Automatic annotation (TrEMBL), chain A:
It comes from the Archaea. This is CoB--CoM heterodisulfide reductase subunit B. Belongs to the HdrB family. Residues 4-86, 149-240 form the Cysteine-rich domain. One of its GO terms (biological process) is methanogenesis. Transmembrane segments: none annotated.
Length: 292, 179
């Protein structure tokens, strides 16, 4: 059995708790236990708060990392934004002793001290490295018969020199996870393009942000894709709720394409129900292939 | 101080070398060619780098600098290893300091000061959490007032509250002209 602290962030617990439920359940089936990270906050969003004030960004991110450091547990996240902030902050603190001193000086009032004894992981790493494709395949009881468009998002892979998951140009890790469920991962134009939400663009200029999303859905439709999967709660929101907003903003027809977080897809393949995975609470309803 | 010195100061967490990588830019335009935002807007990463290199402070008022989604595609592909996305974030810090921060962005920042979350919980999600067998309130700053206080203390210590224009009496944004 392995134990991790789950850094929830904002969108997972506060908008898409189905991601949280699905992730904890799937990991538990493979003997990975999840512990609460009590008192955590917003990561805070790397492209948003990092664009406003890097000192505040680093200090809040370091505080979140330190909460887990003091529990002695590695952390997992279900959002590329959270991964971006926590993993980057941890990387900077491990590389630069002067930053570590500055952070500790500013965290000591709360009784916290960053030591740097833990790792920040994306849940995709737990699925791929801790569990592995072989065990995921063995656990499939209800294989998916569907064409899936994988959306990687940005901050899981990039910057590749900091993240350390290899090239960001031709990744396969999520495609392999999708195919372990029996589904087919289908390539589409601009598969690796950003969803449009990051860097504060969704907040400041929704129309520009949704234009990214719209282009991705148009390409996925052309490729005959049934549903899209992602490893990021923020992309997930942009792609699920975004489809309703695209209809409102541009007056076009709904794409009606179901959006699933990677652990929700894996949960379905393991025989979990649409309802217990929170999939029936999405803005875009599941189609028949994803109703169990 | 020169523009690059301002960017170095705001981007000190990355280290001076990261910000100074901008001097290696040779204006090849691979960043602009790779930019998904530049495909649909007038935002041009190469032009941004050029203005920063030449110390043209008008870039701070240019709303286009806020069209980068921080996707890192240019950063990954830059043949001169300019840390573009880090430079852009630090540049935006300078812009924010000079008052160029949109109301929408100030509101997002306000939520973190008020609740600890940029996207706080609502009643519909509380209900859904319960239905899914999760705790109605997540174990975050939403559940622990002392954790929220820690975030608020950080905001004060870093003068983030002042940057955003947060009024502790009304727990809301101060009126401020949008530059």
């Amino acid at each position: 059995m392995k134990e991790y602290a789950y850094f929830l962030g904002c969108i997972t617990p506060n908008r898409y708790p189905g991601i949280e439920a699905a992730t904890v359940k799937v990991l538990k089936k493979f003997d990975i236990e999840t512990r609460d990270l009590d008192g955590a906050s917003c990561c805070p969003a790397p492209g948003v708060f990092g664009s406003f004030d890097l000192n505040t960004w680093l200090l809040i991110a370091a505080r979140n990392v330190t909460l887990a450091d003091m529990m002695g547990l590695d952390v997992y996240v279900t959002c590329n934004g959270c991964y971006g902030s926590l993993q980057e902050a941890d990387h900077l603190l491990k590389e630069k002793p002067e930053l570590k001193d500055w952070v500790n000086e500013n965290l000591k009032d709360e009784g916290l001290e960053y030591k740097g004894n833990i790792e920040i992981k994306h849940v995709v790493e737990l699925l791929y490295d801790d569990i592995g494709i072989k065990r995921l395949k063995e656990a499939v009881v209800a294989p998916l018969d569907a064409k899936i468009g994988v959306h990687y998002g940005c901050h899981f892979l990039k910057p590749s020199a900091v993240r350390g998951h290899g090239s960001s140009e031709r990744p396969t890790i999520l495609d392999e996870l999708v195919e372990a469920t029996g589904a087919e991962s289908v390539d589409y134009k601009d598969k690796l393009m950003c969803c449009g939400a990051g860097g504060g663009v969704r907040t400041r200029d929704l129309e520009v942000s949704l234009t990214f999303t719209k282009q991705k859905f148009e390409s996925m439709k052309k490729a005959g894709i049934d549903a899209t999967i992602n490893p990021c709660a923020f992309c997930h929101l942009q792609m699920d709720r975004g489809q309703v907003e695209i209809k409102e903003k541009f007056g076009e027809e709904f794409f009606n394409m179901p959006v699933l977080f990677i652990t929700q897809l894996i949960g379905l393949s393991m025989g979990m129900s649409t309802e217990e995975l929170g999939l029936n609470a999405h803005a875009i309803p599941m189609t028949e292939k994803f109703i169990r | 101080m020169s523009l690059v010195e301002d960017i170095e100061e705001c981007g000190w967490v990355f280290g001076k070398d990261t910000v100074d990588s901008l001097y290696a830019c040779m204006q090849c335009g691979k960043c602009t060619g790779s930019c998904p935002s530049g495909r649909i807007t007038g935002y041009r990463t190469r032009r941004l780098m050029n203005k920063v290199q030449s110390g043209d402070r008008s870039i701070l008022e240019d709303p286009d600098i806020w069209l980068c989604t921080t996707c890192y595609t240019c950063y990954e592909r830059c043949p001169r290893e300019v840390k573009t996305t880090d430079v852009i974030r630090a540049l935006r810090n300078v812009a924010a300091k000079e008052g160029h921060m949109s109301k929408a962005h100030r509101a997002t920042a306000m939520y973190v000061i008020k609740t600890g979350h940029a996207v706080p919980i609502n009643d519909a999600t509380k209900k859904l959490r319960k239905k899914l067998g999760l705790s109605e309130i997540p174990p975050t700053t939403h559940k622990y007032p002392e954790a929220l206080k820690a975030i608020q203390d950080i905001s004060k210590k870093m003068k983030f509250d002042k940057l955003v224009g947060f009024d502790w009496n009304t727990m809301n944004l101060e009126d401020r002209e949008e530059k």
